[in-house]
Design goal:
The chain is of the alpha+beta class and about 140 residues long. About 35% of the residues lie in helices and about 25% in strands. The chain has one domain (about 5-130): CBS-domain (Roll). It contains 6 helices and 6 strands, in the order αββαββααββαα. The chain is globular.
Amino acid sequence: MPTLKDIMTANPVTCTSDATIQDVARLMDERDIGDVIIMDGEAISGIVTDRDIVIRGLAKGMDGSTSVAEVCTGDVITLSPQDDVTKAAEVMAKQAIRRLPVVESGKPVGIVSLGDLAMDRDPDSALADISAAPADE
């Protein structure tokens, strides 16, 4: 049975809760990613996605100087690299989340997305094809 370590994207990008949404959007652009884990010291305090910045921030009239803490999701659900892929799929479905931080000894070591699960479960699916495609510039 594959584990999250087998399918996760390692070395997730993090920032502090006082970063602005513009700072985080730039990070996402530079790293070609759609999520950043928010850290409060050594602890995960949230996760922010490109969608959060747009829907919770910009669409509500916030500007680029808004703190990422104002638009992120707190109470982040995490799993371990040793957890199996089926457990991740069940958690993501039950909680209706698209990205799941993978944590070891309290530190983020990876991210698993719906696309990662699709590529593992059904590499010929449309979602797997989309996830595997290079990003548009």
